[in-house]
Design a protein that fits this description.
mainly alpha, disordered C terminus
């Protein structure tokens, strides 16, 4: 491990990042309650007759997530490099178990709050950062860089798709590809990766009948199958349309009675309906600020491993938010995915906040000289 030195104070960009996350989490708690109380009253199950069920659980998850954030904030991120192989083994075990028992576990989940794949996704990014840093300039060679990287990523993504969790696989592949590019891959390798990776994703999407039906519905028009594959997209677009500029007001959403799981996959639609274009645009701006400040931290890290890990952590949140918003606005075919820090989900909330803790530690420990707290006025 790199020789330790007294950690610097958090730079301004890191404090800004923390406040952005806090704003997203608080907004999410409010919107989870607004979107879920009717769902809890009508769906039955352990939350029947308990309108605050999802809000209370999300608040507990958020507290646990912030606890992990502050703990990991103090843990030197370079420690993970020492245990990279152990992290990979644990990650693969989680993915193998979920691939074998995923469908059964999904049926046993309580209100869809426990998803071990989120922890595996974090572990995958830690190992990929270590692997890319160790390769150095060899990353530019197809036989030493692209091929082993594609095999490693393909196995991980394949195990996630089997669960099935196509959206998480897409986010993981996109995040890892961003890290691969930053690590030094040339344009020829990226072109090959996009061609073969894109073909693989299309094949996986078309193999499953329900995925191919969603793609067909999206290409033609959701209106072609109003009560089937196009239902969720139509209801989401209706929610955004009803919201107008200023929204219908907190708790006034009508589409939350039609959208399935409005507090998870449909969260951005409910935000648009109740808070309007202004509220939805504000959320997008927060994610844009997250991306900007996160990459400012990554660019100032002197350790290549820390820089790659920071890029992965920031890209993960950004790409997942983009995918969620794209699905809700029917920009892409429908696939279930949560809005980071905002949608309901225990595993997503806790691992996302844990990743923020790691990112803050990178900014605290890994900044190059001249990139400390006083640098930059953003």
């Amino acid at each position: 491990m790199t020789t330790s030195r007294k950690p610097a104070r958090l730079p301004v960009a890191a404090w800004g990042l923390l406040f952005i996350v806090l704003a997203l989490v608080v907004t999410g708690l409010v919107m989870v309650y607004s979107a879920s109380y009717a769902f809890a009253l009508t769906e039955g199950g352990p939350y029947e007759g308990r309108p605050a069920y999802f809000f209370q659980r999300q608040a507990i998850f958020a507290l646990g997530g912030f606890l992990s954030l502050f703990i990991l904030w103090r843990v030197d991120y370079r420690l993970y490099r020492r245990y990279a192989v152990h992290i990979l083994v644990l990650t693969m075990l989680i993915l193998l178990v979920m691939a074998g028992l995923g469908r059964w576990l999904v049926r046993l989940q309580t209100a869809r709050s426990v998803q071990p794949v989120e922890l595996a996704k974090l572990g995958a990014m830690v190992y990929i950062a270590v692997w890319l840093q160790a390769k150095g300039k060899q990353i530019r060679k197809v036989n030493l860089g692209l091929i082993p990287f594609a095999l490693l990523l393909g196995v991980m993504a394949g195990l996630i798709v089997i669960q099935p969790d196509f959206s998480t696989a897409v986010v993981l592949v996109a995040t890892a590809t961003a890290m691969f590019f930053v690590a030094g891959a040339d344009m020829k390798q990226l072109l090959i990766a996009f061609l073969f990776g894109g073909a693989a994703l299309v094949f996986v999407a078309m193999v499953a009948p329900y995925r191919s039906e969603r793609i067909r519905s999206w290409l033609q028009s959701p209106l072609q199958d109003v009560l089937g594959s196009g239902f969720q997209s139509i209801q989401s677009l209706a929610a955004l349309n009803k919201g107008g500029w200023l929204g219908m007001g907190l708790g006034q959403s009508q589409q939350k009675f039609a959208i399935y799981a409005p507090h998870t996959d449909g969260m951005f639609a409910i935000i648009g309906e109740e808070l309007g274009f202004v509220g939805a645009a504000s959320i997008i701006c927060l994610y844009a600020l997250w991306t900007w400040r996160g990459f400012r931290i990554a660019l100032r890290v002197e350790d290549p491993y820390g820089m790659l890990l920071a890029v992965g952590l920031v890209s993960w949140v950004t790409l997942q938010a983009v995918l969620h918003i794209a699905v809700v606005t029917a920009t892409t075919p429908f696939t279930g995915t949560v809005l980071p820090f905002v949608s309901y989900g225990g595993s997503s909330m806790m691992t996302s906040l844990a990743s923020v803790g790691i990112l803050l530690n990178i900014s605290r420990v890994g900044l190059r000289p001249g990139g400390s707290a006083g640098s930059g006025r953003a």
